[in-house]
Every structure is written in structure tokens, then in C-alpha cells.
Specification:
heterodimer; A: 393 residues; MetI-like fold; four-stranded antiparallel β-sheet; B: MetI-like fold; 2 domains; globular
Amino acid sequence: MTDRVRIPLHRDPKARAIAIQLIALSLVVYGAYSLFQTTVGNLVARGIQTGTSFFDEVAPFNIGFSPLLDFKLGESTYIEVFFIGIQNTILVSILGIVAATVLGFIVGVVRLSPNWLASKVALCYIEIFRNVPLLLQIMFWNFAIFLPSLPAPKNSIEIGSFYLNARGLHMPTPIIDNSSGFILWALTLALLTFGLFIFARRAKVRFEETGRRLPVFSINFFAFVFCGFIFYKICGSPLAFDIPELGRFNFKGGGQLPLPLFSLWFALTVYTAAFIAENVRAGIQSVSHGQTEASHALGMSRRDTVRLVVIPQALRVIIPPTISQFLNLTKNSSLAVAVGFEEIVAVWAGISLNQTGQALIIIAMTIAVYECLSLLTSAFLNWYNRRIQLSEL
Amino acid sequence: MIDDLKTFTTLPDRAPPGSEIGLIAWIRQNLFGSAGSSITTLILVFLFLMYLPPFVEWALINANWVGNERSICDANKAGACWAFIGVRMDQILFGLYFGANPDQVWRPVTIFIIFFTLLIPLMIDKTPRKDILGILLLLVFPALFYVLIYGGVFGIPVADTTQWGGFLLTFALAFIGILFALPIGILLALGRRSEMPVIRAICVTYIEFWRGTPLITILFMASVMLPLFFPAGVDFDKVVRAMIGITLFQSAYTAEAVRGGLSAIPKGQYEAAMALGLGYWKRTIFIILPQGLKISIPAIVNTFIALFKDTSLVSIIGLLDLLNMAQTASRSLEWNGYDIEGYLFAGFIFWMFCFGMSRYSQNLERKLDTDRRN
């Protein structure tokens, strides 16, 4: 038996790996500890009391826009301001995501249209809007275009019961007029949805057995709209609309999107749509032409080819980068601070920080909110990626 | 016998039918290919005729190009007031100090000339000795930038960083960001691909932390909290604080771009290097990084474009970058009310650089793609 050559400890890869990791870990821990020490020392030296006691203090400023949570000047506390900020961030993000997705898909498809002119217009749109800083776009729309060119409330631009003026967009909001009728209506709608769902399942089973297909989507859509309307009337029209009316200086009643929110929403939509359009174009182009030809060869119609062959494969490429665009949009909504829309950065890391001076806690909480949103998004993305990978087997 | 066989000669090709070539055929195929396409074309042409001529008239034909005072622009409201940009050009491009001292404008002008004479050959394929140019750009140029722009040596008057502004500041923030973020990002990317779990965890935490937060909160943090993190007596001015925040932020994005390039390298390269008996650092420096970095250049350029646009956020913490300078100029007493011109000019400069860089990165991507296919 040959005796094994003993590797000296400092050349053993395992021992070295453990040593390196220990050193790295202790450096990080030491760095964090000394950072903490200096910060505490600095805070003490400047006489700053850090703590969460200011949460229950009354916030001495007004928040004009808070659709769900109530804000009362002189009563609401800082912690309520924090939650209103989160609410407004989520609100403008959802508005922006919906609009940017619709616009982005349209522009992305037009970019691939056989019409040369339309395709070039889409190209110009994409290249202009994604290559100019978003902050500049937000300020441009708000300060240079909307604010000076939109009319005063008296001469608002009218579209039905919607009014657009330099203060913002006013619109009717539904209010429940007759609550028992409303509950009845909601119940019948739920029943109707269930029935249509069963119908869709049956139609699918029938399709798999016989190969005959019903236009399930259109039938369900029209049935839902038609029956929903009939039930609405039967239940005694339980909803009323709060229509904005022109008062002496401004509109009263209805819902209002203040101009900063409107500008922010507009700019976020236009900017993000340019990126989504590129994702959509890349996704559709990634489906090889052979797939289209093969499905034509199988005798599938042009519509079925697009619906059942091209779109499912394109979506697999489109969705992951588009979800990261949604996250970008959410983070970019923090630029609202430039036009004064009251989302988390403006209202919490801006006004509240200036009022209380509690920089450490306030910034940490702001960062924590965004970290949570981003972790949720990446968890969803990982789940989605695993799912589409599995279905490929 | 053989002579009897008729030799087969082809007739010359017939020209394609007139309806398939030329301008008219092109128009028919690409603009009026179907009913829907025709309607789209007509609507678009109509919109162009509606909106383009008034815009061109405002921006070019009726515009006030020259002049020193706003009275000229006020007299002709039908056109854009580019005279305003002309008067404030030095300030918008180079900031307050150089705007106020026209005799010093040669300093930023020289620095930009040097920058572009170094950069443009680097972007051309056939340039020899790119390594020397690269080292000049990354190591010598920053020193030169400091000497020329900050001054204080060779009898050049000092331009304090608080007086930096305009496009010069935008450029400085973006350049410093990429300069320091690149080495940090490479190390982070290597760490994230490391086999040691603790190193990997540290790098992942660092990268995901910065990527999860919007830059504006990081800038707020840098401008409000940075002094708290350092021992008493160590303090930076606003510009340096912003640079630190931007570098930390950018290093996470650079790391992800580099990691993409590293993971594109086939496993055989690692195995071959190991079989040759190369240790980790030799393997990384001589085999992995040269290939990985080359593949990740387009992605790095893309993160740089994002950074270049994002530098405009420093205007929120009160720095006078290109955007804020243009806005401040258009809200000054003399030129109040010419916002649109200010925003359009700043936007055009941003657009020019971002568009140019994105075109460059697309070209590079196409070229690298064919390289790998061959």
C-alpha cells in the first residue's frame, strides 16, 4: 500500500474555503458593528433621539389625496401618513402597470406590422421615450405642457361626465344607493359567474371529445354583460353616481385624480410602455417561423395559429422581462416627489423626514417597503419561471 | 452525331413585371397591403399633416435663433425661443462656475475633446492597441479631469464641486459611477458565482439590496445619513455624497450584467483551465474574465445608459445637473416662462447620448452573436 501524500493544511481546498469564508464573514460583521458604533456615537454627539415615539404624534401637514384611508389635518398621526404613502404608491403603480401594459402591447405589435409607416412610427415612439430620463419627462409633461395649457376649472375639457383641467381629472364615482339591492345584485352576479364557468368547462370537455368548438369567450362575455345589466335593472339600479359639479372655484363631488398624479401616471405609462413594446417585439420574433408554417401545414386557421401557437410561446419570452418592468415602474413612481404627488418617498422620506429629523428610521422604513415589493415580485417571477420550465417537458 | 445535338442555351432573364418593382410597387406592398393597412396609412398621414407643420413652424421656421434679451422672444411668440438656450449655453452645459467665468470655459471644452478623442477610437473595430487607450481613459483621464475641472494646481483657479453643474456634472457623476462600479461589480459577480456559500450569500444580499430600492431613496440616504456613518470630522460635500450613492447603486447592476456574461461561458472552459492546473485566480483572470467581460459589454453599456439617465435624479436632492440647470435657467428672472425650450434642449442632449450608446450596444451584440455562431 502506498501511503497517501498528506496535503498541508494551507493547501487543502476545503480548509482554505472555510478560512476564507470565516475571514469574509468576520470582516462584514466587524464593518457592520463599527458602522453601528459610529452612527450611534454620532447620534449621541448631535443629541438626536432615535426612536419610534414620533409615530403617534400628529402630523402637522395636509395630504390632499388619499382615496381609501382617511386623512384629517390635526388628527392623523405620522404612522397613518406612512400607510397613506404606501397606499398611494401602490395605487399609482397599478394605474401605471395597467396602462403601460396595454399601450406597450399595442406599440410592440404595431412595430411588427407590415405597414411600413406604422412600424416606423412605433419605432420612433420607442426610441424617443426610452432614451430620455423619466424625471425629465415627468417634469416636462407636468410643468411645461399640462399645467400651462390645461384650462382653468371653469373651462374644463369635457368628455361625458369626465372633466380635465389644470387641477386634475375629475370623474364620476359609483356609490351604493340601495344596499339590499346591491347585495342581491352582487349575489346574482356571483351565481352567473359560476354558471358561465361551468359552461366553459363543459364546452372544453365537448371540444376534447368531439373536436367541435364553441366561441366560449364571446358567449360568456356577452352573457355576462347582458345578464348583468338585466339583473342590475331588476334589483332596482342599486348604484348611483357621484358626478362632479362645478362649484365657485373648483369641482365638488366625484373622484379626482390631482394633476401631479395625472402627469406622473401619464409619464410612467409612456416611458414604461416603450420598454414593454420592445419586450413584446422580441417575444413575438423569438417564435420561429417554422412554428407558424408547421401549424399551417397541420391545417390550423390563421387565427388559431396566432392564438394557440404563436402567443403562448411568445408570452413565455415576454412575461419575465415585463414583470421586471412592472417592478421598475413601481420604483420609478418614487419620482413623484418632483411634482408633489403624495406617495411614500414624497410624503414619508420627504415631508415627514424634514418635520421630525428622524432620518435613520424613516429611510430604513422607506427602503423596507420597496425591498418587500421587490422580494414579492422576484418570488412571483421564480415561481412563474419554474412553472413554464415544467410545462416544457 | 454529337454535332447534331442542339446545344441548350438559356434565354436572358425576363425583367420582373412593372407592377412588382419600383416605387409604386413598394408603396402598394408596404403602405396599402390590405384594407386595414390602407386605413392606417391614411390616418397616420392625416395626423402628420395636422400636427407636424405647426410643430416645425414653431420649432424651426418661426423660431428666434439669435438675440441676447427676452424682448426679442416676447415680440415673436409664434416661434420657439432658442436665443434663450444660446445665451445660457455655457451655464447649461458646464454649470454655474464656468457660466459665470467665460474665460475658463476652455477647461471643460478641452476635457470633452480629450474624452472623445480617447473614446471614439475605442469604439472602432480596427484600432490597434486598444488596451493602452483603455488604460488612458480609465486611469489617466480621471486625474486629468480633476486637474482641469477642479483646478488648484498649475495656477488654474479652483472650481469648487458645489459650483459644478450642467452637463459637466451629469457626465462626472455617470463617469465616476461606472469607473468605480466596474471593479466592485466584477468582484460581486465572481462572488455570486462562487462555490463558497457564505461569500455567495454576502454578495447576493448586497446586490439584491441595492437593486430592490429606487435610486432616489439611496440619494436621500446619501445626502441625509452619510455623515452619520463616518467618524466625526470626515465629511463630504453634496456632489461626493451623490457619487458614493450612485457608485453603490450602480455596482449592483454592473454585477448582474457581468454575471450574465460569466454564465454564458461554456463549462468546458472552466474544466479545461482546471485540467491545465490553473488555480482560481489564474483561471479567472486569464481564462474566464477575458471571455466573460467581452460577452457582457453590451449589458454593461445598457446599465450605463440607465445610469446616465438616472443621474438626473440628483436634481431632486438639489444638485444642478443638466436637467436642473436647464430648469433653473428657464425659471430665472430674465427668461421665466420658456420651460418648454429648456426641457427640450436638455432632453435632446440626454437623448443623443443614450440613443448613440444604445445603437452601439446593439451593434456590439449583433457582432458578438455572429462571433459565437461561427
